Known about the structure:
heterodimer; A: mainly beta; 7-stranded mixed β-sheet; 4-stranded antiparallel β-sheet; 0% helix; globular; B: mainly beta
Amino acid sequence: xxxxxxxxxxxxxxxxxxxxxxxASGFTFSSYDLHWVRQATGKGLEWVxxxxxxxxxxxxxxxxxxxxxxxxxxxxxxxxxxxNLRVGxxxxxxxxxxxxxxxxxxxxxxxxxxxxxVSS
Amino acid sequence: DIEMTQSPSSLSASVGDRVTITCRASQSVRxxxxxxQQKPGKAPNLLIYGASNLQSGVPSRFSGSGxxxxxxxxxxxxxxxxxxxxxxxxxxxxxxxTFGGGTKVEIK
Lengths: 120, 108
């Protein structure tokens, strides 16, 4: 079955760290760009990070310098290392696979998400 | 960054209605515009990509149109399973991709 499954969420204090994982199956993992997207309770979707097939990485200013995305193709796994966490980072974190129509990118596969709660 | 503004933020409709949701970009995104449906407690699900291309497996009552800065998602003959929140997403200004704020479709 083609799927993404996140894990690693939980409760962490402000200033703490957490590492999320996303396990992929059913497709050629190494051939796809991958992303993390988050959603605070009752709020909209926010892009968090991207890693390309060549391990190029990208972040919005809101997490740059605190979050690190990585991948391990041999294990079909995507990671998000989150350091110096803030209360505002509290959200469900989704991993997503990117596909393309020409140069037009879209997310055609999403995981179910993992909840990160930053609170004292 | 390109800002994406959806309207309305919520709407009430009845089964069988035709529903239109609008997404406006702060600058042209050509047709690099996608639509997703999200139900409570679930991950988003791709409906439309490249502004007007229907994702495989998505019912044909969903359609998308537009280019440049103005886009529309139309649901014809609204069904009970269509009550959800809908998001647009631009992927023109990579790597900085952005989503609209969402439109919640509720039962009248």
